[in-house]
Amino acid sequence: MLFEIFIFPGILYILVWTVVLFWFFRKFMAALHKRVGPSFNGPAGSYQTLFDLSKLLTKESITPQGVNPYLFSLMPLLAASIAIVPTALIPWNSGSTVLSSNYALLVLVVLIGIEPFLLFLTGFGSNNKYSFLGGIRVLTQMISMETSFFLAALSPAILFGTLNLNSIVESSSWLSFVVLIPGFFLYFIALLGLLEQPPFNIPDAEQEIVYGFYTEYSGTNYFLLKIAEFSEFMAVFAGAATLFLGGYRGLFFDNFLCLFLKMLAIAVVMMVIRASTPRITMKQMLQFSWSYLVPLTLLNLAWIMAAKILFFGAAQ
Length: 316
Known about the structure:
This protein is an all-alpha fold. It is 71% helix and 0% strand.
C-alpha cells in the first residue's frame, strides 16, 4: 500500500508524469510552432523544461492585498490533492487497482468534475476582476461540458452492464471498440472543454482576461495549480483509454506500457488540436455544447443500447 501511495501510481509517478508530459508538450509544440528553446536548449530540449520548473519553484509566492487568504492559499494545494485521487481508481495493470469499487466509474467522473469548481474558487478568492471572470468562465464551461462528459462516459457502462473499471477493461474486444467509437469522440470533445484546452481555453484567455483564474498566482502556488492541471490530464487520458480503448490490454501483451502508449496518443491528438485551432467565444461554446454535443451524446446512448441488443444480446 505504501508503494502504491508514494511510488506507483502514487505521488512519485504523478510528479514524473508531470515533468515528462510538460517536456513532451513543449517539445511537440516547438516542432509545430518552430520554437527555438524546447528544440535546441540541451539534449532533446530538456534544459528548457529544467529551467522552467526551477523558475517556478524558486520564484516568490506573492499574496496580494485584499485577497481571501484562506481560499487563495488553500485552493492550489486542495486542487492538486483532489486531482491526484482519481489515479487510485484506474486499473494500471491486471488486478493492480489501488481502490477497486463496483462504482469506480461514477467516482472517477465525480472527482474529475470537482476540479473545475476548485479552479472557480481560486479565481473567487483572488479578489481580482480578471481572476473572478476566469473562475465564472470555468464554472459555466464545467456545467455545459460535464453533462456530455458524463453521458459519454456511461457508454461502456451501459454496453457491458457494469460500473467497475476492471470489468470494463476485461470485457473489451474489437467489436466493443467499434461500437464505442462515437462515444469516444464525444468523450474526447467534452474532456477538451473540462480541461479548458483549445478551442475551449476560454477561462484563461490572455487577450481578454490577462490569465484568468491564474492571474494572481506565482511561485509554488502556481506550480501546484499546474500539478493539478497535469494530474487531471492523466486522469482523463487514463479514463478514456480504460473506458474506450481497452486500458492495459494490447495486441501482443497486456501491461502498463499499453495503457501509457494509449494515453500518449490521446495527448498527441490534443496537442495537434491545441496548435492548430483558434479559441472560440463563450457564446459559441454554450451553443455548441447544448445544441449539438448533448443531443449527440443522447443519440450515442440510444446507439449503445441498440448495439447491445443486436451484437451482445447472447452474451448478456
